[in-house]
Amino acid sequence: MKPKYQILIDDIKSKILSGDYSIGEQIPTESNLQETYNVSRHTVRKAILELSNEGFLRSEKGSGTYVSNQFQSKSGGKSNKKTIGVITTYISDYIFPSIIRGIERRLNEDNYSLLLASTNNDVEQEKKALEMMLSFGVDGLIVEPTKSNLYNPNIAYYLSFKEQDVPFVMINAYYEELDVPFFCLNDAKSSYLATKELISKGHTQIGLISKVDDLQGKYRMKGYIKALGESKLRFQPEHVLSYNTETKLDLYSNLKELLNKNRNELTAIVCYNDEVGLELVNVCRQLYISVPENISIIGQDNSYIAKNASIKLTTLTHPQEKMGRDAADWVIKKLQGKKDLPIENYYQPEFIEGETVRDLKKL
What we know:
Layout: H1 4-17, H2 30-37, H3 41-53, E1 57-60, E2 64-67, H4 70-74, H5 78-81, E3 83-88, H6 96-109, E4 113-118, H7 123-136, E5 140-143, H8 155-163, E6 168-171, E7 182-185, H9 187-200, E8 206-211, H10 215-230, E9 240-243, H11 251-261, E10 268-271, H12 274-286, E11 296-298, H13 304-307, E12 315-316, H14 321-335, E13 344-347, E14 351-352
């Protein structure tokens, strides 16, 4: 458990970094802080002293304590650090190493260093990462949003970056409530192409596995629904399995339930990504359902796990390293004063033939 003075430090620091307390603004008096946080005067003074030492506060005798921006110069000052912050949901899993590699290679060309953080798709961890970036005083920021399809309580931190003229872009998704440049795959088209491919091969009973707390999942479901509608196929909710970051732990058992319930109906499933696609292949093996003879499976993202699996998963492309490089290039150009940089950047997916789709028309 944190000591009381540390809780007070963290809370005041959060209020400064999120813009609740503006630079130069007087913070509440010691008496008010004592009452608000139910702590002693000694605790309040200890917290204020530490925050002053870190450059977040300055005290004026006989006047009060004020918010300072000295914390940025204490961490090195923007003019000579040349550091770009990168916040992704994950670092070492799935397609993220490739994206980060693309960012790093582009930053190295202009002698920028990289300050990396991950959120594990958790908004509290995103808050800590944003506070770290603001405290450090990064020159620019590249962010993969956390739970991008849900309301985000950290919007104030992003507005703080805007107020400080720190350029930032988002990758893979974006917060719809923020006017922010982004680099994204055309996710709706990705699922649309996957579904259309299955329909062209005679499949009419097509399921979907969708992640609902990320924007990618929302648009990938949209593409699936559009393809069904164009082919006059009925959308059947019982053929859709939705999950989120927390329920991903139960995915294996939920996939098993989906297959058992629809064993005699479903002939194909479009998966949220390759990771889910390969998990589904494993479940099929457990249930003695042959892929693709009994069921066809399409993943998305053309990840390294799809390339290295024991069965070659049918999938769609994702720009990965190029996306990282392009995002880093955008930030560098913005810092160099370039105007009229593109705001919306979409990559078009392409279909990649694998071994997990059966052509029913050839039967």
